[in-house]
Automatic annotation (TrEMBL):
InterPro entries: Aldolase_TIM (IPR013785), Elp3/MiaA/NifB-like_rSAM (IPR006638), LIAS_N (IPR031691), Lipoyl_synth (IPR003698), rSAM (IPR007197), rSAM_sf (IPR058240). SMART domains: Elp3. Its cofactor is [4Fe-4S] cluster. This is Lipoyl synthase. Transmembrane segments: none annotated. Gene3D superfamilies: Aldolase class I. It comes from Hymenobacter ginkgonis. Binds 2 [4Fe-4S] clusters per subunit. One cluster is coordinated with 3 cysteines and an exchangeable S-adenosyl-L-methionine. [4Fe-4S] cluster 2 binds at C82, C86, C89. Keywords: 4Fe-4S, Cytoplasm, Iron, Iron-sulfur, Metal-binding, S-adenosyl-L-methionine, Transferase. The keyword Ubl conjugation does not apply. Belongs to the radical SAM superfamily. Lipoyl synthase family. GO terms for cellular component: cytoplasm.
Amino acid sequence: MDTLLLSLPIIQAEPIAPPTPARPRKPDWLRVKLPVGPDYAAVRKLVDEHKLHTICESGNCPNMGECWGAGTATFMILGNVCTRSCSFCAVATGRPSELDLDEPRRVAEAIALMKVKHAVITSVNRDELKDRGASVWRDTVVFTKQLSPETTIETLIPDVKANWAALDTMISGGQEVISHNMETVGSLYRLVRPQGKYDRSLEQIRRTKLAGHRTKSGIMLGLGEKADELYQAMDDLVANGLDILTLGQYLQPTKRHLEVAEFIHPETFALYKEEGLKRGLKYVESGPLVRSSYHAERHVNVPI
């Protein structure tokens, strides 16, 4: 019996793989209503008829129902294909094929038809254009002011890759607020914005402030940043002349994008708002569903 047992083949057991960490479950405070209602439908029809792009759709904004239901929208100019491949953004990446020089007129006409009191205008990155699309930026603001002189405007401009002449053109149209989003803290730039540079974005904000404008930026939370890293980013922004900061929860747009590292509690967002104001920011919009253009109409009253 002993000989028989010793002659049996030894079977190596397969190693047990460690369990895959469960993805954090989306908390109740991130639930939003589906976009419905006659006001939303009216904006939807206008956007379609005028062949306009909105970051509300391309960026899967959770506030689209609320904002469009109130008859407002954030317009995205220079097409809907971006030359950057940021790991958080749902906007399509590639080589843009369109440059519509008539777009400024159409956007201005749509804003006038919608009777928008405060318009937010943003764009994809157009790194292949020598002027980064700056002339279209300026003309959009100028035409909007001509057709709707009472409308206030915020422009959320992309990284110009240190083309400061392009920046000067972009900010010369007469808009009330000029925004450029940092998106994340310095340590996460290679992961989140591989074609961006933390110091370069700070320099873009600094130059905008030196030109005498009201400055604004936004940071997403829940990507793995630490509180002290966020506080350092706040200090850096204040040192470079930032007036307004928005803080919101990062939400993964598709499975191909960065996963959420953490869902930040609303109480923590409130704490961050207090900390930002203590550190010298003039206005902080902070909450799980806050996005760059959320309550943007309030920001035009922030003193320069």
